[in-house]
Amino acid sequence: MIQMPEVPNSSSRKPASRGVVLLASGLAVGAALWFGSLHLLTRGDVRSTAIAQNVSLSARPAGTANFADIVDRVKPAVIGIRAEVEEERTGQLPPALSERFHQFEAPKADKSDGKPERRPRVAASLGSGFFISADGYAVTTNHLVERVKSIEVTTDDGASHPATLVGTDPKTDLALLKVEGVDKVPFVQLSNRVPRIGEWVLAVGNPFGLGGTVTAGIVSARARDIKLGTFNDFIQIDAPVNQGNSGGPTFDIDGNVIGVNSAIFSPTGSSVGIGFAIPSETVRAVVAQLKNGGTVVRGRVGVQVQTITSEIAEALGLDRPQGALVVEPEAGSPAAKAGIQSGDVITAINGAPAKTDHDLMRKIGDMTPGTTVTLTVRRKGEDQTFTVTLDELPSSDRKAASADADPKASNAPVDVGLTLAPAPAEAGQGVIVMEVDPDGTAADRLEIGDVIVDVSGQAVKTPVEVERLLNIAQKEGKRLAVIRVKTGTALRFITLPIS
After folding, report:
1. Measured between alpha carbons, how far is 480 from 15 in angstroms, rounded to an integer?
2. What is the DSSP-derived secondary structure letter of residue 23?
3. How many CB atoms lie within 10 A of CB 144?
4. What gap in Å lies between CA 433 and CA 449, rounded to an integer?
5. Residue 134 banded pLDDT, cuts 50, 70, 90
6. Could you say which of 11, 37, 246, 342 is catalytic?
7. Reduced to 3 DSSP states, what percent helix, strand and coil does the chain have, rounded to the nearest 5?
8. Has residue 7 got a pLDDT over 60?
9. Is 173 among the residues known to form the active site?
10. Are 129 and 142 in contact (CB under 8 A)?
11. Residue 348: which residues within 8 A CB-CB, separation 6 or more?
12. Annotated catalytic residue: which of 45, 173, 252, 357?
């Protein structure tokens, strides 16, 4: 089981408790706890994959409940996947279980340095996938086959075949396999249309190792951002999918694949009717690049952005909470070279609205490096346009270490409940939060160690400057002040109530 973390709300540090569960199924000995979260489709240590078939039906079912003709045609293209990976373990249980079961598996000390002994083990991941061509290319999810040692697939007729990993794209949770020893296999087509909310769908896969399982439901919603990758707008379905369905297809009633099952929202780890599939549009674009070069190349504008909440929109004087708020342009990036600044709101790309930060980054990522785009930006109440030439998005995120600080504190404004001090040099320019009054207005928005970089768009170096700018905003009749904050190495905007 892989549980994805919550993404903090931009105006609050205490989001509601929920998460994602990947749909993979585990065979290794272990224990799993489920805490009402969004899960990738995995079970235990095993991740899951399912394969779909490329079929176009000339006639639809006679009745809404009769899907037998579709199943007869698409089911032969769906495969079960078993992926073996070699992992290191220290003999320690997961944190959620360590306090309760530590007496059953205490870590063994290494004789040389006293650290827990690392013991390799082979874990199996069970999932689903589907053939997309007669020569044996198959689609599944990345989380099923990451760190793979060997892959074996089982076709609908019960035969087993080895498979090789052609390429993966962690940013969309997709992977492409080439199944060996097969010829002229049944395959399915990816849908070339956007499914309608309310239309019937069928999911086929390998839940809990029960290959060839078919379930039915409807499209519940589209364009869901469940914080499982910048470049996905998931399709939500209520067809039951469980651990082991990962990588399996969801079909429309014409027998075309509308999505690849990846995650579920569940308080138990099993289906409660809220599943998420990677849309066929994304699958088609990613698979084409993986087949050609084994990797996916995306455009990059080079800005850190966040969604605009209603409070931030009010504080910035926007008509509605729409667009992508620029937290920081990266040094030397295309955005920085074009003149994009912190505090800008990107509202459109090439004239098409950018409704959220996710929408903007997905559209940019769909473009190739070297593409020139026009960004519409709202700056200080006025619209401006900037021409930006995209460069290439790095394959992995860059990380930097955070620094500790122990400066002498001084008091910030009493009405927000913060004790502030000038940030030490290693933490960068700004004012560091030393104490937070649990009853103050900033209690659920800032934490000890956060660094306030600017207030109302003006850089701050001392607590006095923070107090002065908050007082100015209050005298101007504003209910909220916009503050840019650095937590570790990550920058974000928040709003702070000041009246």
Report:
1. 20
2. B
3. 37
4. 5
5. very high
6. 246
7. 15, 35, 45
8. no
9. yes
10. no
11. 354, 375, 376
12. 173
How far apart (Å, rounded) are the C-alpha atoms in residues 163 and 148? Answer: 11
List pLDDT tens digits, range 147-195. 888 899 999 989 999 999 999 998 889 999 999 888 899 999 999 999 9
169 is catalytic: no
Question: pLDDT category, 39, cuts 50, 70, 90?
Answer: low
Decide: 124 and 26 in contact? Cβ < 8 Å: yes
Question: What number of other Cβ atoms are within 10 A of residue 31's Cβ?
Answer: 12
410-497 shares the fold of 299-392 = yes
Domain ranges of the chain: 1-295, 299-392, 410-497
Here the tokens at position 374 are 């026009």
Q: Tokens 């030397």 map to which residue?
A: 332
Annotated active-site residue 415? The verdict is no
Cα(493)–Cα(311) distance, integer angstroms: 11
Q: Which fold has domain 1-295?
A: Thrombin, subunit H (2.40.10)
Pick the CATH number of 410-497 from 3.40.5.10, 2.60.40.1120, 2.30.42.10, 2.60.40.3390: 2.30.42.10
What pLDDT digit, counting tens, does each position of 51-64 carry?
A: 333 444 434 444 45
**Region 208-228 average pLDDT:** 86
**SS3 (DSSP) at 72:** helix
Residue with tokens 């089981």: 1
pLDDT surpasses 90 at 40: no
Q: What is the pLDDT at residue 62?
A: 45
CATH architecture, domain defined by 299-392:
Roll (2.30)
**Of the listed 143, 156, 344, 450, which one is catalytic?**
143
Predicted TM-score (pTM) of the model is 0.64
